[in-house]
Amino acid sequence: MHLFMKLTWRTLMAASLVAMMCLPEERAAQDLDYSIDALIDREAADIDPEDIALLISLRRDPLDINRAGRTELEQLPWITPALAGAIVAWRERHGPFGNVGELAQVPGFTPVLVSRISPFVRAGYERAGDERARDDRSLETTGRLRLARYRTDRPDAPGNGILGVQADIGLGNRFKLGGRGERRDRGGETRWRSGYVEFGGSATSRRLILGFFEMDFGQGLIWRSHSIRPSTASLSASVKRRIRGLRPVRTTYASGARRGMAMRIDRRGFSLTGIFSRTDSGKWEPGGRLGWSRNSGLVGISVLQSEGSLRVGADLDYLYGGTNLFGEMAIDGEGYQTVQGGMVWSMEGVEGGLTFHHQPDARLIEKSERTWQSLLVRWRPDRRTTLQLSIEPRLTYLELYQRSTIRFRRRMGRGVIASGVWRREKDERLVTGLSPLDTWQGQVAWRVPARVQWRARYERRGRYGLKPEHDLRLYMRYRSRDRFSLTAQWEYTLSGFSAPEDTLAGFSGPESSASLFRSNHRERWVILLYGPIVPGVSTLVRYTRTRQTRYDQLKIPLVETRWVLQLNARWR
């Protein structure tokens, strides 16, 4: 019977691959793989989009725990600055790790924590004399390939989609190349999204990248990503910091992607990074960074010539016991200064973070945030209970915005986890004043060990005197012993505030409460199948159906369906 089920599953997957050639796709690399889906399911907190982009990058290019520095290790899920420092200290005392499982020997690590981060790390260099150790001159070929077809059907855009392909190929430890392209069904347009050639790689002291690359250092004031705001809902630490590193573009949501040439040289604690990149307008931007690092600290000086202005910055990161101090100061050629910094601390059962940003001469035309702060405190009275408080005020030339959040999480018996969230968002605008937006959320998750997980969540959002919005979500996931998984999710939203300009992607905010019809609703089904076909090859099938009825448009139902068929291959 077991053999029959296995043959049936592989037959269905083969049929799915054949069907892939008949369906269009869009942004294949945006779809999360199973490991990231499973990781996000374990978190009660909201997930920041930049966190997801980082997880995708780590999943496709796992971090080498035998070479990564402390600030790089902090980007791993659940790894605090203290745990990252413990990895480096253990490595210096006992030598390189033979495999990822040996992380359990590091003080502060448990087998559960090692299992959680294992999809995002590797032990690239084994101990000397180990038969598995790889020579730098090895010509062993490694690679990853992803093909996907995606179809979106809507009344206004039937059959809209793209065929996507993404590949990364390595030759030994010295040479890699990769790229990502897509072909649109509408008009037959073919577009090359990104590509790179890398010499050296992260495992060597010299590294050269030609093509598309990402560069994040300091707090993002010079080498900025989509946002320079830390996220209090971060997976990797209490308060999110920038990713410190240079890497080729392998993700769809490339944070601060550049195209051109980048080179990095590491020598005895010093690192020199230089870039020569081209903007969309055709102008070339030279720049670089000189950094000095030790286990307890990191200092860097950055220079960038951008849009005719010279920008200079200095960044600092220092770890003392359970306290991590970090910050950056930047100034451009026109005299505009920006300071950003903060600290993360951890004590017995209590951890937290504080960040600040100050730009006294922010340009009004850029709608820059002059000042903002983030305060987070997380308290664990016991191993099963977590309480979290965060306050995030920010000030611009137009408004003062403040968001306060309280989270509660409790592990009950028999695999049951209960959590709750209260959030208040308040805008104080010069034009009009609105009452605070309050959000209440309750969630119950039940996990049958290693096989089935159930989750139910209810959320209510509303302002005083206005009709609220209700959101209900039911979730189920089954995973077999051979890593086949089936996931189903149902969402229902009853909106008390909608407007004619709303789209199917979501509902507008409370500002559109002037609508005469306030009973719109949306229903969504998501079904995901994932499983291996043969060793090194897996496939994913995702189906999404969204139905939205808007009474402010004469009860016209809008229906959107999406099909994603994806093939993933990996070889060594």
C-alpha-based Rg, rounded: 25 Å
Largest sheet: 24 strands, antiparallel, barrel
**Terminal residue distance:** 33 Å
Report the strand count: 27
Shape: globular
Which regions contain 5 or more consecutive residues with pLDDT less than 50?
Answer: 11-31, 126-135, 497-517
> Which oligomeric state applies?
single chain
Percent of residues in beta strands = over 45%
Class by SSE composition: mainly beta
Averaged pLDDT: 76
| Helical segment count | 6
Helix content: 10-25%
How would you explain this protein's 3D organization?
- By secondary structure, the chain is mainly beta.
- It is 11% helix and 51% strand.
- The protein has a 24-stranded antiparallel β-barrel. It has a two-stranded parallel sheet with strand order 1-2.
- β14 (323-332) and β15 form a beta hairpin.
- The chain is globular and about 60 Å long.
- The two termini are 33 Å apart.
